[in-house]
């Protein structure tokens, strides 16, 4: 089984919904009377901090392989915790902004399908629309955004 | 109905699961042969870029209220798109790291409940354990992380 | 003296050059044999982490005034330390990329002067070229970038 | 000449001071009446955005060598511009916070020298004080911060 097949096979093990995560988080904050500290920009600063903590785990590592085979068990747990913090900040931010995140994600996928048609985007790191021209801002994109 | 009650009432409208988002994203990337461009650190850089794009919407705004009442419809759509990009990067990153994000989030909630017991954390911006001492690193935290 | 005049009067107290900071940092790293850990992307991840630590100081603060009048002395020292960390990461990154940062900054100012001519940019938060049109990406900019 | 010697030889070509950059930037903003848009947190959001733009250049690149030998001339110019934007945001932020950045940097170096004594930090990626113990937060650091 090669690497691509292996990757194909990786799945999350739970059916956790974004709404359930939002609800648990909202109850958690309400029980502690923390809504007062969470206007949108304050939660966004928190998210930037959490992204920074995640980035710190991956610095001074050199190349890191799919599946983190060289990470210790403790490091893997730590990665999961920091990713969770980023997710919690993001879900909280969406709630505080009254942005319907799970719906927005589906709409974004539709945009991405239009922006990166398979026959033009296949195996290419640049946006299809700009691949033959000097890109003004030098951006490349292979995540469909 | 006061603001706190109002906030309590905000919910996401869909039952979208993280696993479903992961799967749609994985298929999207596989169809375009993009797995080759997505080792963990490359996806993490992408996420940092997406967080930056989200932050750019909120700069030069001054204070922003819960629910984004002063944002135009176009700005709200834009916020939803950039939040979606952050979420997609994060879910993709978790997949590429083989981190079971929905499970990790639940475990993080358990840690947060231990770290911020209601009777000590209620209405306080500092970590309960440090509220009466000079914090060496000056960190405060009210998102339970 | 009003606030604007006051702000005008704030100056850094030293004539520290970017090259001197680069040199001190380079010697510091070389003495510890750390060059091996500092390819460009690893230093960039470090910078993202440092920006996150700076952001964490400013979260849950609500509006923060010019001059940080409500920060304690300890908080101000902490802010200076985290800003220093960001600067050190950036200078180190420029060195590792062989980018002549002090020269690049001057060139960027020239670009900014062209992009934001005073008579069109005065007192406006949007880019002059887009102020009368719906901006596709919703970006605003008042720092001349 | 090996790589380490080569790196040692890289220098910035100008004697630009942080104070001069601050002054040029302050005049630029004052001429455009932009001080009103730049309370500290708004400038910090701007910096997060600029860091994101810098990160976007380095994503999907795989490993990047010292000196950016595989970058095109246009990409190198772009990197310099985005680094400049980060620097300008940081200098502006320091000014708006009334933080004496060039002085703070020197004080930080003193702290770093105490924290990472050569005989203990030489060639090691972990903080000397924690190298033999499981680090609670999993942090590693080789930039002396």
UniProtKB/TrEMBL annotation, chains A, B, C, D:
The keyword Signal does not apply. GO terms for biological process: dCTP catabolic process; DNA protection. Keywords: Cytoplasm, Hydrolase, Magnesium, Metal-binding. CDD domains: NTP-PPase_RS21-C6_like. Its main location: cytoplasm. This is dCTP pyrophosphatase 1. Homotetramer. Hydrolyzes deoxynucleoside triphosphates (dNTPs) to the corresponding nucleoside monophosphates. Has a strong preference for dCTP and its analogs including 5-iodo-dCTP and 5-methyl-dCTP for which it may even have a higher efficiency. May protect DNA or RNA against the incorporation of these genotoxic nucleotide analogs through their catabolism. Residues 133-145 have a biased composition (Basic and acidic residues). One of its GO terms (cellular component) is cytosol. It comes from Magallana gigas (Pacific oyster). The keyword Cytoplasm applies. It catalyses: dCTP + H2O = dCMP + diphosphate + H(+). Its EC number is 3.6.1.12. It is found in: Cytoplasm, Cytosol. Its cofactor is Mg(2+). PANTHER family: DCTP PYROPHOSPHATASE 1. Residues 123-145 are annotated as: Disordered. One of its GO terms (molecular function) is dCTP diphosphatase activity. It comes from the Eukaryota.
């Amino acid at each position: 089984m090669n690497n691509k097949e292996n990757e194909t096979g990786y799945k999350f093990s739970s059916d956790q919904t974004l709404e359930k995560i939002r609800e648990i988080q909202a109850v958690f904050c309400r029980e502690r009377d923390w809504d007062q500290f969470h206007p949108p920009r304050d939660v966004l600063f928190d998210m930037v901090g959490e992204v920074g903590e995640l980035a710190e785990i991956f610095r001074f590592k050199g190349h890191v392989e799919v599946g983190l085979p060289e990470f210790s068990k403790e490091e893997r747990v730590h990665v999961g915790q920091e990713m969770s913090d980023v997710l919690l900040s993001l879900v909280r931010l969406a709630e505080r902004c009254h942005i319907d995140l799970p719906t927005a994600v589906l709409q974004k996928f539709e945009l991405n399908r239009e922006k990166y048609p398979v026959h033009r985007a296949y195996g290419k790191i640049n946006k299809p629309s700009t691949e033959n021209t000097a890109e003004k801002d030098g951006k490349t994109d292979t995540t469909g955004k």
